[in-house]
Amino acid sequence: MIIYTYPVRTAFTERDVEMIEPHFSIKPLKFTDSPVKLPFYFILQAFQLLFYLPKTTHYLCFFAGYHSYLPVIFGKLFKKKVFIQCGGTDAMNMPAINYGNYRKNILRQFTEYSFRNCTKILPVAQALVKQDYRYSALIPEAQGLKNLVPGLKTPIQVIHNGFSGEFWKDLGLERKAQTYITVATGISKSNRAMIKGIDLIEEMAARFPDAQFTLVGDENYSTHLTNIKVLGKLSQKEIRNLFNQHRFYLQLSMSEGFPNALAEAMLCGCIPIGSAVGAIPEIIGDTGFILEKKDSAALVRILQDANQADLITLRILAPLRIKTHYDYEDRKNALLQVFQ
């Protein structure tokens, strides 16, 4: 049995369970992302790990942090393999925007211990292994596992996210000009909004009053601009239908590992406009536009250029790139091979 631990349940964790479950017995164990609840969850997790120990063959952790600490210890004590999926915040140190595991001393120690003592690290993007961050002067350049965990010797295998082109697809609908969409949760919190680049979207909405911007994921986010539509959490089918009503997808984050919604939007024929962070440039390739630095004037030019581009060709190329490089079956096969 594979014990799968994570601090929050997401579409990512659900998809990986879906990939693994037909081939291996897997038991998801949710931890917590609330500091107040940590003592209780450490005790609960210890009892859970002991209870399932006789049947356990592997431990799989979604990100490194408090929730991966005990599985790593159990793995060492009882000679079980432990794999950690590195996804973003566990490979970033961005104190200026209150983001990343390494800005808090205790969390940093738990994260480092987990990475140093697990069997193998499975980042979702090469950028999480090592990167020179240049998007914003507020952020230290040295990012990624090899910069933040000095002397790290644990084996690393990049396994990109994978997506189904059967569900996420272009429905062939007519799309209005200057329609932009982004998906981001928790943006009613100011630091989260900045991390996800919502401040730039606000600036662009003010600069282009005839354009329509849609923010999906947090109904509590408030804006005074009438051309920004705010929606709460939606089902995947509802999001797919929204993607098919918009011409562009905006991923203007200050930090990302491998943003799922970007790839899903591209599969639906949205032309991507993204920041030069994490795997975003790699995902977009030559099918969209990259904002190299956090610069409002540069973004204005990109939006102007994007609306004058060959939109028909880009709409075809965007889903093709995801199908070619980030296929669902490719991730599934790579993930299953880890447990052989």
UniProtKB/TrEMBL annotation:
SUPFAM superfamilies named among the record's database cross-references: UDP-Glycosyltransferase/glycogen phosphorylase
Domain of life: Bacteria
Protein name (Swiss-Prot/TrEMBL): Glycosyltransferase family 4 protein
